[in-house]
Amino acid sequence: MASKRCLVSAAIIIMTEDEDFDLPDEEFSFVTLFAACSDIQEQRKRYKVERFVQDVVSRYSLDTFKTFFRVSKTTFEAILENIQHIPELLLREPAAGRPQISHEKDLLMMLWYIGSQETIRSIADRFNVSESTFHSHNRRLLDVFQKYFLQKFVIWPNDVQTVNNEFEIKKNFPVCRGDKRFTDIFCGWPGRVHDARVFQNSPLRQRGPILCGQCHLLGDGAYPCKRWLITPYRNRGNLTRDQIKFNQILSSTRVIIENSFGILKGRFRRLQFVEMNDISYVVKAIITACILHNICILNQDELDEHFDNDPQQVPLIIPMFENDAEGQLKRQLLTRQLAIT
In this predicted model, what pLDDT tens digit does every residue of 180-221 receive, in sequence order? Predict the structure, then answer.
């Protein structure tokens, strides 16, 4: 078929370049139509990988498995054990027709999707399923993770003081939380919306004082300073030595928090460039990646691949909301404490 395509294309080129060549309109249309049909037939050829899971994945070494699926084999098996008895994923009774897709294959497809930038068409071919089948199974599994695992693995610590002490030992600066697990997720706003506006509309803004108690979170200069959310002093060129030291310690402590996002995007590379049209699908993919991130930390499943945002892409931080008096007072007290250490 490829040779015919070349001959037809050559014929069309010759005809367009030779003004004396006379061909009836209906014959010229036939040649053009034949070329178009051959192109369509060529595009329809799909080379799917049969028995990829059985014959290829089963032979992966532990390191190769982790490279492609972004979690260790131990973590994978633990997740697989947890999803097998979920009602939405129960397999039907064996009957005539095409074999059902196993839980193992479902989970492998989802991990490959979240852990790579590969196109859905390519992933579907790799696992020998149609694109529509991949979409339906992937969305179903993302729904399951959000419904059954979000409240189980993304939770606020019961003992905030213990988390506070973990950070205090590391940086002499009390905050929540130091082991790089996510404790609260609020997802769905467009990326161009200012961080502070997203915060103002998040449930955390209302629950923060109760959740943190006498402790506090750390934020950058985009957020308002509150009793339970401490931010750096805004540098207008008039900071004291103690205030500069405070900002430096706060910034060095926040590196641990920023590293969490680097680890998340480094492990689940789909989040580096999210190209999806369905916002709800985007949200579910991000939440599932955060859940998997926490599961990996709990299983001591490390992956030394970080994603660093381009500093040139970081927008200028302009505070949108005023600091409250209670937050500023607490920040001053912390500044004095750090000044004498």
Answer: 889 889 888 776 788 888 888 888 888 888 888 888 888 888
Residues 292, 117: Cα–Cα separation, whole Å: 17
Distance between CA atoms of residues 219 and 257, nearest Å: 10
Say what the pLDDT of residue 98 is: 74
Residue 245: how many CA atoms within 13 Å on its side-chain side?
A: 15
CA 150 to chain CA mean position, Å: 15
Q: Are 210 and 252 in contact (CB under 8 A)?
A: no
Cβ–Cβ < 8 Å for 157, 243:
no
CA-CA-CA-CA torsion sign (296, 299, 305, 306): positive
Q: What is the pLDDT of residues 215-268, one digit of tens each?
A: 888 888 888 899 999 999 998 899 999 999 999 999 888 888 888 889 999 999
How many angstroms separate the most distant Cα atoms in the chain?
95
Start-end of H helices in the chain: 2-17, 25-44, 62-69, 73-83, 103-114, 120-126, 131-144, 150-153, 160-171, 195-200, 203-212, 241-267, 279-298, 325-339
**Burial label, 311 (beta-carbon count in 10 A; 0-12, 13-18, 19+):** exposed
Helix (H) / strand (E) element for 218: namely: strand 217-218
Say how far apart CA 45 and CA 37 lie, in whole Å: 13
Is the CB of residue 269 less than 8 Å from the CB of residue 116? Answer: yes
